[in-house]
Write a structure and sequence with these properties.
The chain has about 575 residues and is an alpha+beta fold. The chain has helices at about 10-30, 60-70, 85-90, 130-135, 150-155, 215-220, 255-260, 275-280, 310-320, 330-335, 360-370, 370-385, 390-400, 420-425, 435-450, 460-470, 475-485, 495-500, 505-510, 520-540, 550-555, and strands at about 40-45, 75-80, 100, 105, 125-130, 165-170, 175, 180, 225, 230, 270-275, 290, 295-300, 300-305. It folds into two domains: about 10-175 and about 300-335, Periplasmic binding protein-like II (D-Maltodextrin-Binding Protein, domain 2, 3-Layer(aba) Sandwich); about 360-555, Lysozyme. Strand 1, helix 2 (about 60-70) and strand 2 form a beta-alpha-beta unit. The longest helix is centred in the last third of the chain and has 23 residues, at about 520-540.
Length: about 575
């Protein structure tokens, strides 16, 4: 008599187990149920999305998303995506609601001649984004969703046959030309003491693992070499150890920096979006110029068009904020990018853009390493007493005197903070005594900030106004505000005032003001320089560079609610 391997009961048990396993597989691979009050955003961890270097806010894209969430009552939740394709796939598969933070290459969007996209759907500024993805799959009739067969295929082969369908492209709200960056040295050193990976505290992948910080933050697309994508080294530290060829220092084999380094005999290039290039170049080793290539990339948000609640809200949000009268995008662009030197801009003609002033940066790093430590206690005390970020105070000192305690200008200002005699008398300090000068300068900045309380300014605009008043006096600042209002502006943003201030040097304008002639162009140059140096100092800390050791004692004095204090 034949004895079956499994009894009938065992067969039912195995069948039930198989059903349970299939059910669990579906639970794992299908998107989690969407919470209607949560906005899930897929984005690569780039500087314009979640900032590492800038002290001026959480990030350009994050502030836009925060504005949307505040308007419609959503909670913002990040979903980590390493690149554009992954972000779009996360939205198409239902793991995310919106994809942001990358530019669409020319050809992927149809230009309608006014900076936005064509509109085959009839909705102003809104166009399908799945055309090229569908064409790539050859499946024009595919429908949204994930079938069991597709899930099993994905599990077995590691491929995803599901095309991107029903995705919507929002209007173009920013443009940046891609830049081909190259380096001249034959052997690039690995970045020294750089933070190469995300901490995982602000953006997490679906598997909960932290992302690759430097690579995902910097590179738009990789310029492949025989050894993989090229990633630049960082600016060599002032007085720090130099890496000799073959030296085992910094990241070790298997780390992202080593894996991404180009082969010695391969091309030393990387393709970077224009914004990332400008923001990261001050920290790059051998910051040679970058060549603008191709047409400008258009930045958009992408979302599913089949969400009857979310999709109309996103379309409405972008109609409002791309209207000519709306200034949100202009104000954010000014705050996050407006202080960068013109030499870091990407020209329209495709010629090589000039590099950052390497001598100025090396001077800053030398001062941080050699002079700042002697004044760090005084800076910390003054900053704490006046509720000012000590790094901003250090940026002001560097701009004023390069930490030269005997500095003297042709206009008569003197000392490490370049105070006038009248200001020193008002503050009851000896301007030639470094500690007193720093204390007096910090107190004067606080007095100027407090004097602007009646204007109801946004915190950073108020600090930029404060710096302008520190340079040219509070009377001339008020003249610039009134002149801007007379010319049709609001007089409430630095974006407007930086255009108006230089007019105070021209008779046709300063003759209409209370305090008369003013070197307004110097005020603008002063504010923008301080903003730039403040950005660099924060970047040195964020990248854990050797200079950060000298800046670390200042960080305990940062006000809790800075800059809104």
């Amino acid at each position: 008599m034949h004895n079956p391997i499994f009894t009938t009961g065992e067969r039912f048990a195995l069948f039930g187990l198989a059903i349970a396993q299939a059910f669990l597989l579906l639970l794992i691979l299908l998107p989690a149920p969407h919470e209607s009050d949560v906005l899930r955003v897929a984005a690569p961890a780039r500087e314009r999305v979640l900032t590492r270097l800038s002290p001026y806010g959480p990030g350009f894209e994050q502030e836009l998303l925060t504005a949307f969430c505040a308007r419609y009552g959503y909670e913002l939740r990040w979903v980590k995506a390493d690149n554009r394709d992954e972000a779009l796939r996360l939205v198409a598969d239902g793991y995310a609601d919106v994809a942001v933070g990358f530019g669409a290459a020319p050809g992927g969007d149809r230009d309608n001649g006014n900076g936005g996209d064509s509109d085959p759907t009839g909705a102003s500024g809104i166009a399908p984004a799945a055309i090229e993805a569908t064409a790539a799959t050859g499946d024009a009739d595919a429908t949204p969703g994930v079938s069991l067969a597709a899930l099993l295929t994905r599990l077995a082969t590691g491929t995803d046959p599901t095309p991107l369908t029903d995705l919507v492209t929002g209007p173009a709200y920013d443009h940046a030309r891609p830049v081909l960056v190259r380096w001249s040295e034959p052997d690039l050193p690995a970045p020294v003491n750089a933070v190469l990976r995300d901490t995982g505290t602000t953006a997490t992948a679906r598997d909960g693992q932290p992302g690759d910080g430097l690579r995902s933050a910097l590179l738009l697309t990789t310029w492949e070499t025989s050894a993989g994508p090229a990633v630049p080294g960082l600016l060599p530290p002032s007085g720090g150890p130099s890496l000799l060829p073959g030296a085992q220092s910094g990241p070790q084999p298997g780390d992202a920096a080593v894996d991404a380094a180009p082969a010695p005999d391969g091309p030393r290039h990387a393709m970077v979006d224009g914004d990332s290039w400008r923001l990261w170049q001050p920290f790059m080793a051998e910051p040679t110029a970058g060549q603008a290539t191709g047409k400008a990339l258009s930045y958009h948000w992408y979302w599913r068009g089949d969400d009857a609640t979310l999709a109309p809200r996103l379309a409405e949000f972008w109609r409002e904020h791309t209207a000519p009268a709306d200034t949100l995008l202009d104000d954010l662009t000014e705050r996050y990018f407006g202080f960068l030197p013109e030499s870091l801009g990407v020209p329209e003609d495709g010629e090589y853009a000039g590099p950052v002033d390497i001598f100025d940066l090396m001077d800053l790093m030398t001062v941080v390493a050699e002079k700042l430590p002697n004044h760090a206690p005084a800076i910390s005390r003054a900053a704490a007493q006046s509720n000012i970020d000590p790094l901003l105070l250090a940026a002001v000192i560097f701009q004023e005197s390069r930490f030269d305690t005997s500095a003297r200008s042709k206009t008569g200002v003197r000392g490490i903070m370049q105070l006038t005699q009248n200001t020193a008398l008002l503050l009851k300090v000896n301007r030639m005594n470094p500690s007193q000068s720093i204390r007096g300068g910090a107190r004067y900045l606080r007095m100027l900030w407090d004097s602007l309380d009646d204007l109801d300014l946004q915190p950073w605009d108020r600090w930029f106004f404060t710096l302008a008043a520190f340079n040219q006096g509070p009377g001339h600042l008020r003249d610039a505000i009134r002149l801007n209002q007379d010319l049709g502006g609001t007089g409430r943003t630095w974006r407007e005032l930086k255009d108006t201030f230089p007019k105070l040097a021209r008779p046709r304008y300063h003759s209409r003001t209370r305090y008369g002639y003013c070197r307004g162009y110097e005020a603008v140059a002063f504010v923008e320089s301080v903003r730039y140096y403040y950005y660099i100092l924060n970047g040195l800390v964020a990248l854990s560079r050797p200079e950060a050791e000298h800046l670390a004692p200042l960080l305990d004095a940062v006000p809790v609610r800075w800059p809104a204090i």
